[in-house]
Design brief:
This protein is an alpha/beta fold. The chain is built from eight helices and seven strands; from the N terminus they run H-H-E-H-E-H-E-H-E-H-E-H-E-E-H. The chain has a seven-stranded mixed sheet with strand order 1-7-6-2-5-3-4, sandwiched between helices.
């Protein structure tokens, strides 16, 4: 039994590295082979970006299928058609692992993103510079870029924690998503990314690490929309809107646990409270 577990662990490490190699190779092919002719065919720049983002989403769906086939990932998302039909929404999600943006872009074909400016120094810079919105622009430019993208029918994906959340912690939520929503008038769609432990993909984890017991399970759960009108022109509106977004995302886990708990014990007889010691 122990040897089987060791072999399974070794396979997941190999499959993880193979997946990263495929990801890097695919990025290189997109930037050097696919995007140049697309830029010549589709004008203006906004039309090229729309086609290229849809292509990136298709590639990510294929990438998720590869990882699923290799036995290292399982993506669970109810009503995937609902994600595909999103338009002009601000999708805000928690950020537990390296593959979160891959999962969301695989589900949302018209997904635009606010990305870290430092990604311009990585292998994905050829994609991020051409298709997505860097977060190192000044606030006015950032808000205008987001509003324009939303008016074109895209969805802006934002991770308000700004970075991957350290394991077993709840990161602080920045106010950018609330600002974009209030500026553009577009609603926020909170999404919780749950599942099992993402060891090996989390912040500060070793690159050789994987989940020791199972494949990575991504449970992507869409919450009810939050509308900016309730928070506009009110004292502390941005702060309260951010708190509501955070509660909608992080509060889902406790509700889900309570529901599961109720299902487990619903057939058990009610427990009597113990009598005080003096009775």
């Amino acid at each position: 039994m122990r040897s089987i577990r060791i072999l399974g662990y070794a396979w997941r490490v190999f499959a993880k590295w193979l997946s990263f190699f495929i990801f890097g190779l695919g990025t290189l092919i997109l930037v050097t082979v696919v995007f140049p002719p697309l830029r010549l065919i589709f004008h203006p720049r906004g039309r090229f970006q729309k086609k290229a983002r849809a292509l990136v989403s298709l590639c990510f769906r294929f990438f998720v299928w590869i990882m699923t086939t290799l036995g290292i990932v399982r993506l669970e998302a109810e009503d995937r058609l609902r994600y595909r039909n999103l338009s002009g929404k601000i999708v805000v999600a928690n950020h537990p692992s390296l593959l979160d943006v891959v999962m969301l872009l695989a589900l949302i074909p018209n997904g635009d993103c606010i990305v870290r400016g430092s990604l311009g120094k990585t292998i994905v810079r050829g994609v991020t510079r051409q298709l997505y919105i860097p977060n190192n622009a000044n606030m006015e430019t950032l808000l205008e870029d987001c509003k324009r993208s939303l008016e074109e029918g895209n969805c802006i994906i934002i991770f308000p924690e700004g970075t991957r959340t350290p394991r077993h912690e709840k990161g602080l939520y920045k106010k950018g998503a609330a600002r974009v929503s209030l500026y553009s008038g577009c609603p926020v769609v909170p999404v919780r990314i749950g599942g099992n432990d993402k060891y090996g993909l989390g912040k500060g984890d070793p690159w050789t690490g994987v989940n020791p017991d199972d494949r990575y399970i991504y449970q992507v759960c869409m919450q009810n929309e939050l509308f900016p009108g309730a928070y506009s022109n009110t004292p502390g509106g941005i702060r309260n809107f951010t708190a509501a977004i955070r509660q909608s995302i992080l509060g889902f886990s406790s509700v889900h646990k309570n529901v599961r708990k109720n299902i487990v014990v619903k057939n058990e007889p009610p427990r009597r409270k113990p009598l005080p010691a003096n009775q």
